[in-house]
Amino acid sequence: MNDIPVLQSYIAGRWFGHTPAQTLRSAVNGRAVAATHAEPIDFAEALAHARRAQAALLRLDFQQRAARLKALAQHLMERKEALYAVSAHTGATRQDSWIDIEGGIGTLFSYASIGRNELPSGNLLHEGPVVPLGKQGRFAGTHILVPRAGVAVHINAFNFPVWGLLEKFAPTFLAGLPCIGKPATATSYLTEALVRLIVESNLLPEGSLQLVIGGTGDLLDRLEGQDVVTFTGSADTAARLRAHPNLVRQSIPFNAEADSLNSAILAPDVTPDDEEFDLYVKEVVREMTVKAGQKCTAIRRALVPRRHLDAVAERLRARLAKVVVGDPALEGVRMGALASHAQQRDVAERVALLRAGAEVVWDGGPDFAPLGDGAAEGAFCAPTLLLARDPHGHAAVHEVEAFGPVSTLLPYDDLDEALALAARGRGSLVATLVTREPQVAARAIPVAAAWHGRLLVLDREAAVESTGHGSPLPPLKHGGPGRAGGGEELGGLRAVKHYLQRAAVQGSPTMLTAVTGEYVRGGARIETEVHPFRRYFEDLRIGESLLTHRRTVTEADIVAFGGISGDYFYMHFDEIAAKDSPFGRRIAHGYFVLSAAAGLFVSPAPGPVLANYGLETLRFVKPVAIGDTIQARLTCKRKIDRAKTDAQGRGQGVVAWDVEVTNQHGELVASYEILTLVAKRA
C-alpha cells in the first residue's frame, strides 16, 4: 500500500494523517486508488477550531458570504477537469460526473444568487410580519432569524462525493455556520480532491470547512445544543443516528435525507400510441442507468396500467438491451460501475430478495460482460428490470431497495390503486406522474403529496425543459416524509433558514426598528429638510422620512387617467352604477392614486436615486373619491448593499421605502413598498 496515496482529513487548519488504513479500490477495474488514514481524529480540537472560526465567518455578512460562494464556484469551475479525472475511479460516466461535479458547483452559484437577491446586509434576517400587540400601536412583535451559535456536521452518502458536500455547505456557509463534512468512505478520495481545491482557493475564512476521512469517532457525543447534524444515506442509518443519545438529550436538530422506494406512475389515460408513453419508458430507463441507478431519487417502482403491462415491458426491454455497460473511458459506454465492490455485493443480495416474488424482464442475460480491460474485476451490475404481477402480495418490493440499476414493474387496475401502491413505500423523496390530462393530475397530486417530498407531472409540454424525475434542484425542497427521512434540504432560502435560529421579538415600533434594521410603522421617524431622494446610499438612515404636500383629486384627474390608461371601469365613470355599488359614488383609479403619490414624493432633478425597479405589498385600503385630498409619507425602510456598480464603476445599493398614502381624515388609503437603486458616494 506504500505506492498509493493516503487520504488526509483537513482538521484545525492542517492536513492530517499519513499511515494507510483501509484500501479504496477503483470501481472500474479493482485497482487500488487510495487509502484512508489510520490516525484517530481529535474531534474536541476540530469542534473547538470550528467554534472559534465562527467569529471570522460573522465578520462577513450575508451579502459578503454570497460573494465568496460565487468566487468559490468560479474557482472550482476553472479546475473541474481535475475532479473529472478522479471521478472516473467511482465508475461514473462523464455525464454522471457532470451531475455530481458541475451540479454541485452550480448549487454554489445558485446559493450565491439567493444570498445576493434574498438576504440583507448584516447577519439578521427580519422574517416578519410585524404584528400589533396593543390597541395604541405602541407595542408589537415580529420574528427574526440569526445564525446559530454552533457547528454544522454534514454526513454524506457515497453516490455524490462532490454535490453531496457542496449542496449542504452552500446554505450552511451562507447562514454563517462553520461545518465539518464527513463523506462516505468508499468515494472519499473524490471529496478530498474537492476540499483540497477549496482550501487552495483561500476564499473561505479558516475553519469554515473541515473534512473527516474515515469514521466519526466521538464527534456526535461532543456536540452541543446550538449545533446541527444533517445526514444523507440509508433509512436504517438515519434512524440510528436520529436516536443518538447526545442528539436526543441536547435536542440537536437532525435533518435526514434517506433512501426511498420512489415511484413513477403511468396514468390510465396514456396509451401506447401517445408521446407520453415513450416519455415514461425513457424516464424509467434513464433513472435505472444514470449513476448506475445509485441515486436516492431513482425510480424503484414503475406503476403501469395492467392492460398496458406487456407493451411497457417490451419497450423497456428493448431500450435496456441497447445500454452499453463498461469502463466509462470507452466510447459508446452509457453506464458505468457501482461505486464499490461492497455496493456490488449489497445490490446482488437485495435483487435476490426482490426476485423471490417477481420475474425477470431484463438482466443482461447469461452473456452479460462489461466492456474494458480489467472490467471483470470492477463493480459492475447489469441493468435489472423485474416484474411483480401481484404488487400487493410481494411485500419486499415496497420494503427493499436495491441501490443500483434496478427497478420493478407493478401493474394496477385504476388510479386509486396506483396511488395506494405508491404510498406502500411509506414515504419517498419523489414520485412522477405521466399523464396527458390536467384533470388526472389535479386528482392524483393532492393525494400523492402526503407521501412524497417532490412530485413531477410529466407530459409532452413539460418534457421540452424537464430536468427529470431524479434531479433535485437548489430552489426546491429535497427530502421526503417517513422512510425518506422526514427532512428538507435545498429549497432555496428554506435551506439557509434551517441553519438560522428563529426568535420572536416584542417591543415598541421604535425598538423593533432598531433591532431588525427595518423601519416599523409607528416607530420614531427622522425628519430632515433634505429630501431623502437627495441622499447617497451611505448617508441614508433607516427611518428617514418625508411628509409630502397635499393634492385634491378632481373629476378631471379621473377622466385624464382613464384616457391615458384605457381603464374606463364603471366605478370611475358611471355615476348611476357607482351609486348602486358598495362605495355609493364614483372613485378614483387605484393606480391613479399610486401615480399621484409618486408625483408627491419624487424629487425630479438628477440625483443619487437612479431607478425604481420594484413595488411590493401594494394594498388599496380605502377608496378615494372626487374631492378627497391625499398626502404621502415616504420613509426609508430597509437598505441592502449588494455591491452593484454602474458603467462608471460607482457603487450602488438597494433601498426599500415604506409608503403610506392618507386622505384628508388621516385615514390610510394605500400602502406599499417601493425599491430603488441608489448611488453611493464612492
Could you describe the 3D structure shown?
GO terms for molecular function: oxidoreductase activity, acting on the aldehyde or oxo group of donors, NAD or NADP as acceptor. It comes from Tepidimonas alkaliphilus. InterPro entries: Ald_DH/histidinol_DH, Ald_DH_C, Ald_DH_N, Aldehyde_DH_dom, HotDog_dom_sf, MaoC-like_dom, PaaN-DH. Pfam families: Aldedh, MaoC_dehydratas. It is a single chain. This protein is of the alpha/beta class. It has 3 domains: 217 residues, 3-Layer(aba) Sandwich (Aldehyde Dehydrogenase, Chain A, domain 1), CATH 3.40.605; 221 residues, Aldehyde Dehydrogenase, Chain A, domain 2, CATH 3.40.309; 155 residues, Roll (Thiol Ester Dehydrase, Chain A), CATH 3.10.129.10. The chain is built from 20 helices and 28 strands. A hairpin with a 7-residue loop joins β6 and β7. α2 runs antiparallel to α4, α4 packs parallel to α5 and α9 crosses α10. The longest helix has 25 residues. The mean pLDDT is 92.
